[in-house]
DNA sequence: CACCTTCTCAAGCGGTTTCTTGAATATGAT
DNA sequence: ATCATATTCAAGAAACCGCTTGAGAAGGTG
């Protein structure tokens, strides 16, 4: 192999690596991966979730599939897309973490989207596990029902973001000293915030779990399916 | 905040994440990150390492700096570029791992570049550590001297890839039963392969450490600097 | 079969990226 | 000061990407 051929082969190899990065190098596709990390979705559901046209969403999904980041299965007329492996989620989270730590810029963008969160108390995965060993607490999963079904923290109660009124009944059956922890898709999701503010309006204090289910699962946390 | 504004803010946030991915979404820049993961370099050295023109390399380095993946320092007329943080390396490795596991395609490209490696015996970081606890072995760092200086495995001997003849002397002072392990930049680097084949030509068996220094360091392995 | 739903594809416009060339800038040495 | 070295910048050509529109394919239903 000549030096020139070697160079070409090396370039091709790294171009291959870059291809994967290119899959995530679009805001739309990043959003799609964030959504699919919660569980599989049809094209239409994905389009709805990211607020794009069907054709454009299909386009991006095909791109992700072409580079191997997502996989599909057909069920009747629906085609379900899912992340191709846990490693995709792992890489996405590494990228997201890097972005958050590196760019103050991202901090500003996040604040613009999520609003001021300083009034909300948070709890980390680790702290939650410690607490869970000591005593019971009420865990609330504030994500659309489909995501709850594809995997949730053991014992968590589903309260979809558009059904926050379910909290009324739930809270009325609690003792005043019962502690409440809410979580949703992850640090860049507002659903848990909304639920906690709703509870605050009822005079109940609640904590927000920083991590979402993908982070929890990748860290080796137990996950329940179904119901 | 209206729904429309919320959408725009969310898009901007994910566009921000995608920006980081875009930094790695070019074969050239991926190569640069792989090189800089071994230690800082000047623009000229980097250009040489990736076989590109100076202007183009500078261009790519500026792009990486703009998205915050690399940082610089000036020393006289030279400007040294380095990865901005260990997290950059972490993310790059996650991406590379994902690519390798996901795409058979990458396997083929790697084989095209690296040649057939099936004849070479490998050893993992874990196995190496176990062995090191039981007995001494000869560790050889087959990277350019500058990279050895910026960080190498404890006790490793530097044998730059263009000075393989140094192995002659080295081996003549060894007992026949001494075991030799060589490593270089990582799994996609040929230097250790070359050294092991050189040793095989002398009738000495040697193992290749799969991981490079970045992987070793990120896994919490001890690293020595200087000399 | 005709018809509906769900998804994909093709074409095309406008914008971005990559690489090259040649000039400009910044620092250090004489 | 003048020159050499190292790096960056500016401009332009070719290729590529993202989004839209409208048509097409694949599967299910009456």
Greatest interface by residues involved: A-B, 53 and 53 residues
Compute the separation of the termini of chain A in Å. 59 Å
Number of discrete helical segments of chain A: 11
The overall pLDDT of chain A, averaged over residues, is 93
Category from helices, strands and their pairing of chain A: alpha/beta
Shape of chain A: elongated
Largest sheet of chain A: 5 strands, parallel
Helicity level of chain A: 40-55%
> Helix-strand pattern of chain A, N to C?
HHEHHEEHHEHEHEHEHEH
Strand content of chain A: 5-15%
Oligomer: homodimer
| Uncertain parts of chain A | none
Report Rg of chain A.
20 Å
Order the strands across the largest sheet of chain A as they lie in space.
4-8-7-5-6
Count of DSSP strands of chain A: 8
Structural account:
Two copies of one chain form a homodimer. The first copy, chain A, contains eleven helices and eight strands. Chain A is an alpha/beta fold. In chain A, the strands form two sheets. A five-stranded parallel sheet of chain A has the order 4-8-7-5-6. In chain A, strand 7, helix 10 and strand 8 form a beta-alpha-beta unit. In chain A, helix 3 packs across helix 4. The longest helix of chain A has 22 residues. Chain A is elongated, with a radius of gyration of 20 Å. The N and C termini of chain A lie far apart (59 Å). At the A-B interface, helix 1, helix 2, helix 5 and helix 6 of A face helix 1, helix 2, helix 5 and helix 6 of B. Chain A binds a DNA duplex (30 and 30 nucleotides) through helix 4.
């Amino acid at each position: 192999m000549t030096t020139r051929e070697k160079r070409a082969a090396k370039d091709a190899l790294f171009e291959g690596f870059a291809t994967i990065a290119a899959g995530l190098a679009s805001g739309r596709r990043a959003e799609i991966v964030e959504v699919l990390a919660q569980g599989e979705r049809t094209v239409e559901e994905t389009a709805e979730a990211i607020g794009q046209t069907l054709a454009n969403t299909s386009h991006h999904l095909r791109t992700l599939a072409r580079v191997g980041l997502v996989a599909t299965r057909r069920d009747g007329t629906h085609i379900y897309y899912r992340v191709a492996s846990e490693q995709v989620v792992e890489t996405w989270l590494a990228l997201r973490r890097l972005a958050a730590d590196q760019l103050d810029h991202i901090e500003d963008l996040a604040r613009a989207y999520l609003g001021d969160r300083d009034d909300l108390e948070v709890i980390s995965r680790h702290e939650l596990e410690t607490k869970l060993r000591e005593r019971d607490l009420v865990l609330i999963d504030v994500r659309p029902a489909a995501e709850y079904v594809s995997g949730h923290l053991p014992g968590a109660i589903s309260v979809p973001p558009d059904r926050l009124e379910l909290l009324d009944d739930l809270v009325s059956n609690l003792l005043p000293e019962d502690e409440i922890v809410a979580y949703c898709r992850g640090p860049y999701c507002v659903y848990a915030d909304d639920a906690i503010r709703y509870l605050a309006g009822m005079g109940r204090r609640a904590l927000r779990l920083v991590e979402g289910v993908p982070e929890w699962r990748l860290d080796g946390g137990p996950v329940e399916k179904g119901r």
